[in-house]
Every structure is written in structure tokens, then in C-alpha cells.
Amino acid sequence: MTSIPAPDLRSADAAMPAPRTIEAAVVAGFTATIASWIVWWLTHLPGLGVPTKFAAAVLTLTLVVALASTARLATAPFRTAVFGGLIAGILNLLILGSVLGEQADSAEAMRSAANRFREGAPSIIMGYLLVTTLAGVIGGGLAASFRAPGADRTSPGRWLARFAIIVVLSFFPLLMIGGAVTGTESGMAVPDAVTSYGAFSALLPMSMMAEPRIFLEHTHRLFGTLVGLNAIALVVFAFRAERRMAPKVLAFVLLFLVITQGIFGAIRVGAVSSGLAAVHGVFAQFVLAFAVVTACKLSVLDRAQAAASQGALDDRTLHAARKGIKITHIAAVALFIQLVFGALGRHLPNGSHAVWTHAGFSVVVVLLTVMAAATLRIATPAHKEGRLLRRVGLALTVLVFLQFVLGFMTLWQVGVGGAEPIPSAEELASARAIDPLEAIITTAHQTIGATLLALVTLGVYWTKRISKARTPIAARA
Description:
- The structure is a single chain.
- About 70% of the residues lie in helices and about 0% in strands.
- The chain is mainly α.
- It has three domains: about 20-145, no CATH class; about 165-195 and about 210-290, no CATH class; about 305-420 and about 435-475.
- Strands 1-2 form a two-stranded parallel ribbon.
- The radius of gyration is 24 Å and the shape is globular.
- It starts with 8 loop residues before the first helix and ends with a strand.
């Protein structure tokens, strides 16, 4: 009888990494994109005067580090970094567009320069894509040389879980720049809602962004576009790699919410409505919280919790989770109410009542947040779930007191008279000068407020999820 050879499982495994490499490359590419956009924004802030060659060098270094850091977790680190570099290069064309078009320094000049490419634009594009690919090659070499111990090979959904975290992180620069737009009265600096001074948004020339308010409003829109692309990619990723229906639905709803927020922003520019501006700011916080929930559902830890073999936790962690359900829910509601008062105070011209209410209610928010943090800290570090609760509790404790201090600094810097008038595009030349200290304080206050909401949302999700664990076991010493 002729024996049939057993299948070579190692050969089968070797043939499988291609789809996993694509997933890892997507994560690496979007990670590098977000990192490079943040660095680009910081190095191009009007008034800083960062030399062009230095900014280019820092941007390239950022790409290499981001690609290497992500690719070292992959099965095929070199290919992951190279393909990730190409993805980042394509996405970064949205910011490279500021130097691809004809440069104009006034609205009148933009009438003829809008959507017209400068001579040599194709060569610039090809050269930049070559640079990002080379950054991927260098990053891939570093990743292969410094591979993470136990780099991912078999864990289902791990790259999807990582990408969901990247999507959440992409919201924070958007919210930060949105806070700067509000704090500097820049919301009407670009008069048209869909285009930018008649140009396709990515092609607004760098010369126009020498005006700080135009720079802030325009880059806020660009980062909104990036968040939208992240949300689209997450839906495609989830429907490709996720078997469970609930995470797919959450990813799709998140995309719908992101699109809705973008529509609110566009309508707000056309309507010149302070009330709609407040709705736009509050809804952004809600979308962030929903993104956190989506990332939690897509996480490897959630998948492990769903497995029967992962049902046992120590009694202290279970106690912290079950006790923390109510207090984290109450803290989340209080934080959201506080954000509403803050948005009304910042956007309404007669918002002094909302400002005072915001200031007074902050005491309640601090107490509830500290109580929630203390409850989460009861958990032990014996399991991943317990360590997660403890870290969330620690972060809440630190940030809520920092936020409280920033709140008083904001009152000292801005006052309680409500929002300042927002200059239109035609009034920018005569608008009051931007106070950098005021902009930094108010932007930090809003960004940390969003971070607190994200952390409390984590607490809400995981206290409920962990409390469903089957049987408590004795905590390890």
C-alpha cells in the first residue's frame, strides 16, 4: 500500500503570512502617517520659523521610527515596513499638496491659483514616494534587527485590534487642533466649507497658511479627513478579518458618526452659528467615546474574555469591576455634562452662566472621577484585566487634578464673559492678535477633558465586561 505523506504544516504556515503582512502593513502605514502629520503640524506652525531642511529631516526620521516600531511586531518585519512606508507616502500626499500647487498669499490671488499645480509637481510626488519607500526599507532593516520577542504569528485579530487603537489615537490631534481653533477664534478663517479658498482642500498653498488662523482651521479639516480615512479603513479591515458581527456593526456605526461630524463641521461654516459650533464640539467627544468602545470590542483582551477558558479572575479584580460599574457610569455622565457646559461657555457670546456652571460643577466631576479611579485601583495586577483597571484608575487620578488646575488657569486667562467674536476671512487682517499662552492653556484643557472621557469610557466598558467573568480565583501573591 502506498503511504500518503503527512502534510507539511510548516510549509502551510510559511504560505500564510501574506494576508497577515498586508494587515500589519496597513497598521504600520497609518501609524506612520499619524505620527508624521503631528510632526508636520508642529514644525509648520506659523511664527516658529523651523528651517525647511530640518523639518524634512525630522519628518523622515519620524517615518523610519514609526515604521520600525510597528513592523518589529510583525511576522515579516521588512516587508511590513516597506509596504507601510508606501501606504504612508500615499496618505501623506494630502499634506504634501500644500507645496504642489501654485503659491498664492491672498484670497484674490487664489482665484487664479486654485487647483493649479506648480511646474515639476509630478516629480515632487514621485520623489516623495521614493523617500517614504526608502524610509520603509531602513525601518524594515531596523525592525528585522530588533524584532520584538514573541512577534505576532498566530493570534487572530491582533492586527485589527492594534489598528482600532490607532483609530482612537487619531482623534486626539484632531480634537487638540479643534480646541486651538476655538481658543484662537479661527473657526471662520476659511470661508468655504468644502473647498479652501476655492482649492481642493489638500491643495491650499503653504503661503496662505502663513496666517495662523487659516493654518489652524485648514489643518483641522485635514486631520478630520485623516480620521475619516482611518474610519473607512477600519470598516474594511473589520469586515475582512473579524468573524463576530458586533464589532463589524460598531465599526460601521463609528464611520457613520465620523461622517455626521464632518457634515456638522461643514454646515457650521456655512451657517455661522455659535450654537451649531457647540453641538459640533460636544458631538466630537461622543464620537471619541464611541471609538473607544469600538476599540475595546475589537481588542484581543475582549476576545480572550469571550473564551470559556479565560473565565476565571481573582476576587479583588472582580470586586473592583462589579463595584466600579455604577460609579464609572455616573462619572461618565457627569463628565459629558461638564463638556456640554464647557462647549456652551466657549462658543456662546453670552455664555457666562455656562462658564460659571462649568466651574462649579467641576468639583462634582473631580469627586466622582476620583471615586471611580480609587475603585478601579482595588484590582490586582495578577491578570491583564486587573492591570488594565489599575492603569486606568491611575491615569484618571493624575489627569483629573491636572484638569482641575488647568480649569482655573483658563478662567484666569480667558475670564467668564463668554466667547470672543470670531473674525470672518475678510476680517483676519484687523482681528486681535492671538495670545499663545491663552491658546496653549485652553487647548490643553480641552484635550485633557477629552482624554478623561476616553479613560472613563474604558472604565465603563471593562468593568461591565470583566464582571461577567465566571468564577473568582484567589489572587496571586
